[in-house]
Amino acid sequence: MPAPDLDTIVSLAKRRGFIFPAAEIYGGFANAYDYGPLGVELKRNIREAWWRSMVRERDDVVGLDASLMTNPQVWVASGHVANFTDPLVDCKSCHQRFRLDHLEEGIYGEVRRDASGALRCPNDGGELTEPRQFNMMFKTQVGPVPDEASVAYLPPETAQGIFINFENVVSSMRRKLPFGVAQSRVSFRNEITPGRFVFRTLEFEQMEMEYFCRPPKDRANPEEYLSLYRAWVQERLRWYTDVIGIDPARLRLREHTREELSHYSAGTTDIEYLFPWGWGELEGVAARTDFDLTQHAQLSGHPLTYFDEETNEHVVPWVVEPAAGLTRTLAVTLLEAYTEEPDEKGDNRVVLKLRPNIAPVKVAVLPLSKNEKLRPTARRVYDLLRPLWLAQYDETQSIGRRYRRQDEIGTPLCVTVDFQTVGEEGQPGDDAVTIRERDSQAQVRVPMAGLVEALRDRLGGC
Ligand code: ATP
Predict the structure, then answer these.
(1) Residue 393 pLDDT > 70
(2) Which atom of ligand 1 is nearest to the CA of 326?
(3) Does residue 179 sit in the same domain as residue 128?
(4) Domain limits at 178?
(5) From CA 183, how far away is CA 198, in angstroms rounded?
(6) Has residue 448 got a pLDDT over 90?
């Protein structure tokens, strides 16, 4: 099925408690969103799936949570203070401000040019100012006195926290090369381009890993290092298809050209997704060589090396960095999962076909109707399941409408308690309930004693 348009997802996300525009009662706040009760669960589940694949299931990667507020020298060494800039232009007639690269990419609408080929304002064709460089880091102040010494920055990425802890991790965890350090935290960028929902926001969450490798003997010919980099590109692509469930037809790899690469980089590949407006980056996998460790060693005066027992020398590891956007992946997860199809009666139903590991609510307990006889048993089932999975209990409106509601939030399974379960008119009940599957809409009756096992099987063990 083709991906839905963005408005459909934005409206479902709001209606069903996934994502709300920030500060709506004050008229909103550009490029900022709040995650609702289901959005926060979905976000946690995606992060957890990443952490599992990157840290728990591997024996060569460990985790970290570095302070967001840190010494500003970190951002000097990383190059962000000097170079984390975008070129901005203003329209001389309507005074709207644009990012030059986004203007050229047509992100603001039709690309307009004058007869000489110079770019013009996409709104009114007005003349544009010369580009000015604008740093995307948010600056703030630590302590009461606003002077140069109190300047601090909100982190525009999570990677630097890993580099500056390199030595701490090596000495405390006794790691051997190659090994990785993974971190998932919030990042901030002063984005001036109108965002497309949570695709581009001021505050967003990233999932990054620095994989420290043995440096090549020949800098010009780092074949072994490049093969680790290529393996990570494939591994990350696999994660999106096999773990998150993204259609491979809407994913592609885009290798950066020589001109796009920074001077220190040995290669970068973007994992791109076909958004409703075209291809866009989901994750960048970068071969960053020894650039960051060398920069931090130089500026801090503290050598950041690894003692290689095989060669008996101190070396500066080379790094492969898969840097993914958690909140951007969440937007893609919703786009991918959204399906419209006929229900049991042939009416249209909206289903979020989220993988069970990602779905916020795993199971809903639904008494067939709002009835005093059904409620105690249904509540008992709900109590039984709640410690195991995020479950919902719902007894209002018809059972069909309640199925629709669960379909729309992507709940993989519903458990229905009916009069056969509890017994009627003096007859004993059969102590069995109905499991209804979201995708097939199939219903099977299972004895209550085997319910947890039956659900666990269908949830793929999650
Ligand atoms: P873009 O070109 O789209 O601005 P980028 O190349 O600057 O992205 P990176 O610095 O490589 O992005 O960051 C890694 C990942 O973080 C991106 O692939 C994306 O998923 C996510 N990301 C970056 N900026 C934002 C943002 N403003 N809002 C949401 N996610 C973001």
Answers:
(1) yes
(2) 20
(3) no
(4) 6-78+136-334
(5) 20
(6) yes
Choose among 97, 103, 108: nearest CA to 118: 103
Q: By the 8 A CB rule, do 342 and 397 touch?
A: no
More confident residue, 208 or 193: 208
**For 83-149, where are the E strands, in sequence order?**
85-90, 97-99, 112-113, 119-120, 132-135, 139-141
Same domain, 284 and 386: no
User: 90 with 199, same domain?
Assistant: no
Judge if 191 and 277 occupy the same domain: yes
Beta-strand pair 363-367/413-417: parallel
Atom of ligand 1 at shortest range from CA of 191: 27
Taking the centre of ligand 1 as the mean of its atom positions, its distance from the CA of residue 331, in whole angstroms, is 13
Q: Which atom of ligand 1 is nearest to the CA of 280?
A: 3
Q: What separation in Å is there between the alpha carbon of 325 and the centre of ligand 1?
A: 6
> What length is written for the chain?
462
| Segment 194-224, tens digit of pLDDT | 778 999 999 999 999 999 999 999 999 999 9
Residue among 424, 273, 438, 272 nearest 350 (CA): 438
Pocket of ligand 1 (CB under 6 A): 157, 189, 191, 200-201, 204, 206, 281-284, 323-325, 327-328
User: pLDDT-derived band of residue 145, with 50, 70 and 90 as boundaries?
Assistant: confident
User: Relative to the CA of 208, which ligand 1 atom is closest?
Assistant: 14
Measure 352 CA to ligand 1 centroid, in angstroms: 25
Atom 3 of ligand 1, nearest CA residue: 281
Structure confidence at residue 59 (pLDDT): 95
